[in-house]
Amino acid sequence: MSDTHVGIEDVSVDGAGKFEQALQTYRSLGGYDAIVVDGDMTDAGTIAQYDSAMRILNANKPKGAKAIIAPGNHEYYAAGDELGGDKYAAAKRFYEKTGMDANGNIVENVDKATENAGVFYDTWVKGYHFIVVDHDRSAMSDAKYAWLKKRDRDGRKGKSGGPQKTGLRPDALSVQKHHVRQRRRGLEQSGRIRQIQSRHGRLSERHALYRPHALHAGASEHD
To answer: Cα–Cα distance between 191 and 201 in angstroms, integer?
Structure first.
């Protein structure tokens, strides 16, 4: 799911309530090993919004399901509103409040001297490889593309400590179909990512690359 916008001030949208309802629906269906929240979980990346969103997520997600969270552009709004324009601090807050720098996730650090702020990590769930790439692909450095290629290559070799499984489709949850909303942003950068995806044929048989806003749960129509 994506774009839950927990904490949104628009009175016509109950982001928190719809997030909770969606998670409870997933839990009622059962059989989930992972829940992906694919951008804009919060409306402005504030501490209070993160605390609320994570409380809802942890209380309502299917038992035993691993949470995999990617930041969207709204997670960086706090950089301007609270953090003096420091997007690195906004990315650090994302990791601290979501715990995506722990629980077996492998974080690729950003070099402040040469790279823009961003969140990059990968993780494994029962043989499936998930790669999380920051929402702003126009800001990706050559070093991050090299990292993505390496993680893609390692994933295809099954470097997870366990066997590979099949069934995941890129930019889609294997366990539930959702409407896919592709954002036409950063076309050149997206092209570079697609080249990596297609290098060895069907990425879907090995692992999935998650780009924020690829999945939309309908909790909010806000960008």
So the answer is: 15
Q: Which residues, listed in sequence order, are joined to residue 123 by a DSSP beta bridge?
A: 130
- Residues constituting the chain: 223
Question: What number is the average pLDDT over the span 8-13?
Answer: 85
Q: Which residues pair with 210 in a beta bridge?
A: 132
The DSSP secondary-structure symbol of 84 reads T
Domain edges within the chain = 15-210
pLDDT tens-digit readout, 89-117: 999 999 999 999 999 999 999 999 989 99
pLDDT recorded at residue 198: 62
pTM of the model: 0.77
CA dihedral 184, 66, 128, 123 (to 10 degrees): 80
Buried b vs exposed e over 32-43: b needs ≥16 C-beta within 10 Å? bebbbbbbbbbb
Give the count of beta carbons closer than 10 Å to the beta carbon of residue 112: 9
Cα separations in angstroms, 179 against 97, 105, 173, 213, 215: 28, 27, 11, 11, 7
